[in-house]
Amino acid sequence: MQKIKKLPDAEFEIMKVVWANEPPITTSLIMQKLGNEKEWLIQSVVTLMSRLVDRGFLRTEKAGKERFYYPTVERKAYLKFETGMFIKQYHENSFINLVNTLNEDKALSDKDIDDLFKWVQERKG
Q: Where are the alpha helices (DSSP H) in 2-109?
């Protein structure tokens, strides 16, 4: 299993489009879904896609003039990695510290707290 590394923001934006669409993915699709909105040049998208291949997040196949991309890291695996790193780096590896921070900032609604309580109760069995 490959070791996942943190992605720069622009590459993560591309991966969100990749994960949301059925492979194969093309640079044209990325431009259509993201590049035009971000005002990226096609060459910038090609470079970012190439970096994602180099980092092991995508594999590529060429057919004629078109290059097709396929995800090699699942969205769930990346989010698990990022969430773990976030809790470790900013919350001393404590889920309770994270929840306390969200609660102090009034970021948790009553429904969120109820859902969290239900989740804990289900986990306890």
A: 9-20, 27-30, 36-38, 42-54, 75-90, 95-104
Share of the chain above pLDDT 90, in %: 82
- Residues 31/22, Cβ–Cβ less than 8 Å: no
Copy the structure tokens of residue 21: 């669409």
- Cβ-contact 54, 8 below 8 angstroms: no
* Sign of the torsion formed by the C-alpha atoms of 46, 51, 57 and 61: positive
* pLDDT tens digit sequence for 74-101: 999 999 999 999 999 999 999 899 989 9
Provide the residue count of the chain.
125
Rounded to an integer, the average pLDDT of 50-70 is: 96
What's the predicted TM-score (pTM) here? 0.85
State residue 3 phi and psi, 5-degree precision: -85, 125
- d(CA 13, CA 15) in angstroms, rounded, equals 5
